Amino acid sequence: MEWILGILIIILAAVAIFVIYLSERITVFETLLGINPKVTGEKLAEHVNFGPNPFGELSGKDLWQAMCGEELENPDISIDPAELDKKRPRYEFVLSKHLESLLEEGRFDARNNERSDAKAVLRIQMLRGSVESYIPFAEASRLYEIGQELESNPEKSEKLKSETSEIVDEIFAKVGMDVPSTLIDSMLSMTYSISEDESTIDDDLDNEMDDDSTLELPAPDSETESENTDKISS
Residues 103-136: pLDDT tens digits? Predict the structure, then answer.
């Protein structure tokens, strides 16, 4: 009986070692994919669809509130201030892209005589993964409207540029960050109407067509022409 008990102990030990090994491999696999082992359900589906979140559990309004130093509405999320500070350069990119997108969407809709709701929450794609960015609706809505006005009233561009700068300054001040030096110019660098580009392209195409229409077919070779004539007559 003792030898049977010894075999059972060896088998149980082998199973325990295998389970520990398998658990470690799963942890390594999750780490490589950027999956937090605590992420399950809806968050796991989001991870699969959009890639890992560089800001961990923080996303959308929670991320905004954390960067503003406000108390989070979600009590289940814990914040490490040191880790949060390390991620501020990434957040600068996220916030900048969100602001640029709001203005550009306003311009785009204006070119097409359309109007839509300003996206206070917008998913920003990053080099590795993505995150939802949040901007208070009042500021997001105004930036969208500025984009509309830049297209419909280009003569007000200087006034609108000044207002854009004020809004951006206020937003970055709330998160305790400096405005990137090139952000405002980047946001307003395409204030001309797309119709001007389209008309220029159309003019170029028309010119090319006119040039093509003036081309004449080469005169047929005399010997070939006489041969064809003889075949027809025969």
Answer: 999 999 999 999 999 999 999 998 878 999 999 9
Q: What does the pLDDT read at residue 3?
A: 65
- Tell me the whole-structure pTM to 2 decimals: 0.62
Q: At what angle do helices 60-68 and 88-111 cross, to 10 degrees?
A: 130
The answer to whether 72 and 61 are in contact (CB under 8 A) is no
In tens, the pLDDT along 216-232 reads 444 445 444 445 545 44
Give the Å distances, CA to CA, from 149 to 136, 137, 142, 169, 225.
Answer: 20, 18, 10, 20, 65
| Beta carbons within 8 Å of 53's beta carbon, 6+ residues apart | 46, 47, 59, 129, 130, 131
How far is 12 from 10, CA to CA, in rounded Å?
6
